[in-house]
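Work Package 4 report. The design task specified in the project plan requires that, given a folded chain encoded as structure tokens, an amino acid be chosen for each position. We show below one input record used in the internal validation round.
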């Protein structure tokens, strides 16, 4: 039986809190294809996640916890990094040999993925990496880079690992094009991100066709999700439409929360903007099922979940969004961070809400392409292919 070792930038604890843990785990081990899966975590809390996967073993090496403790002491951190790097290489080699692991996979091509690639090559097992989108777009936009906040190093490591992978799994054509542009890699597999089965159950529910009462933003309050753009957009919208009854609901939390609340106070619209905090999937659904207008500059699952309920969606003309949403056909595509263009889209929607909702319903038909069964079969095909090639 085959065995997998994988690592992610994300914490499994985050997936657990969002209610997507099973989904994330099954994505990497579809239909229990692997007898055993070893998840190498940088977060010690991941060892305490509640799961019922007999095949899963979560490992958080002690040296990652040590590195986290000394992160604020820059000198210690810089001195400790090379030692941790070497220790990690040694440990991964030991684990792969001892447990007879047959495939390795990294969720994001970042610095600590290099030891996994190196050991995989020494052990002679295939190495698969995953790209979720254009990683450079947000880094360039906010001026903060993933690896030591160094642009050259961040971009170099990403390109290097993409080139050295046996396969790169991407969720859409846009990301595949991005990967080809920054590398010489030819083996890209387009496999959409999996969606929970209960999302497809919601397709059976008749959508709410009442007049929308809210604009809704869902996402982390961080720079690359652009919640500040949505707040600025809404403030200008209210100036242009003072009689509007549509409020703005901001679902999420993060480092920009204080800045956002201060902005709405200064604009004197605090009574019209509701910050409801971080919500689990079940509570988010309560908002989506009311058929609001979803303002989604950059996102992932939220667009799919909004589509299931027939929500009116405005998103950006970047990344994969315009592959799923077609402008003025089943939703609206606004120019990236262009407030005037987004205001024009809102104006078009307001002119005829009934027509807008009819268009939004067309997006529901695309959801059948994203069923978990189809996605899992594609994952298994790639696993079988790299194992056969090796």
């Amino acid at each position: 039986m085959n065995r997998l070792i994988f690592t992610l930038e994300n914490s499994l604890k985050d997936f657990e809190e969002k209610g997507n843990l099973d989904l994330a785990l099954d994505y990497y081990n579809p239909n229990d294809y692997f007898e055993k899966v070893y998840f190498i975590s940088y977060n010690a809390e991941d060892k305490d996640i509640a799961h019922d996967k007999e095949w899963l073993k979560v490992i958080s090496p002690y040296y990652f916890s040590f590195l986290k403790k000394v992160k604020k002491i820059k000198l210690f951190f810089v001195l400790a990094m090379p030692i941790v790097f070497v220790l990690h290489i040694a440990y991964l080699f030991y684990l792969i040999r001892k447990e007879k692991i047959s495939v390795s996979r990294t969720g994001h091509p970042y610095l600590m993925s290099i030891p996994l690639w190196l050991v995989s090559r020494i052990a002679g097992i295939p190495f698969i990496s995953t790209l979720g989108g254009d990683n450079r777009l947000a880094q360039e936009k906010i001026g903060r880079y993933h690896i030591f906040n160094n642009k050259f190093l961040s971009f170099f490591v990403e390109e290097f690992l993409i080139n050295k992978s046996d396969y790169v799994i991407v969720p859409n054509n846009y990301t595949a094009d991005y990967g080809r542009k920054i590398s010489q890699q030819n083996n890209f597999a387009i496999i959409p991100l999996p969606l929970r089965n209960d999302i497809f159950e919601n397709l059976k529910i008749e959508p709410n066709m009442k007049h929308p009462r809210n604009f809704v933003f869902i996402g982390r309050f961080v720079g690359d999700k652009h919640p500040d753009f949505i707040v600025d957009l809404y403030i200008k919208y209210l100036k242009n439409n003072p009689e509007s009854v549509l409020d703005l609901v901001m679902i999420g939390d993060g480092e920009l929360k204080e800045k956002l609340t201060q902005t709405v106070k200064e604009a004197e619209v605090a009574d019209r903007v509701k910050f409801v905090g971080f919500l689990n999937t079940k509570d988010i659904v309560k908002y989506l099922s009311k058929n609001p207008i979803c303002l989604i500059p950059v996102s992932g699952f939220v667009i799919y979940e909004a589509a299931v309920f027939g929500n009116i969606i405005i998103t950006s003309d970047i990344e994969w969004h315009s592959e799923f949403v077609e402008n003025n056909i089943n939703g609206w595509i606004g120019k990236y961070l262009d407030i005037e263009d987004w205001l024009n889209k809102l104006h078009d929607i307001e002119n005829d809400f009934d027509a807008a909702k009819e268009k939004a319903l067309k997006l529901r038909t695309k959801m059948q392409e994203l069923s978990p069964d189809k996605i899992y079969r594609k994952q298994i095909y790639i696993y079988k292919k790299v194992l056969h090639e090796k």
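Residues 236 and 343 are 8 Å apart (CA to CA). Validation will be extended to a larger panel in the next phase.
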